[in-house]
Amino acid sequence: MEISGLVQNEELFTLNVENPKTGKPVGITIMVRSAGSDAAMAVVREQTDDLLSRQQRRKMIGADMVEDNELDMAVSYVASWDWGLDANGKPNTYENKVPGNDPKTIKAIFKKEGWIYAQVVGAARDIANFTKA
Hints:
Blueprint: E1 12-18, E2 25-33, H1 38-56, H2 63-76, E3 78-82, H3 103-112, H4 114-125
Antiparallel strand pairs: 1-2, 2-3
Helix pairs in contact: 1-2, 2-3, 3-4
């Protein structure tokens, strides 16, 4: 069996965000990159270089930095998102507005809404989402 190409790290997976209480889709769709994608691996390399540099300078690596790095990784998994409509046909919003697609906004929402963060990270790290059918 030819195994090269079984995993398509550069393909996108469509994640339909689910309500953490009901498990039903909320109408938000996120196009998720694989954790092995070039974009995600670039973040890993950047973070590793930074950590090694800090270590060589004997700088402290605190919990805030680790948390921030994890959030940045999760943001790198998001190619785009569409906040869509709720069950009543009204736009899904966050703090009364439809959020933008920029990394700063995505990171802020992931930091406050761990349930969305968890769904994105789970989808990005599930290799089955990026294998050929």
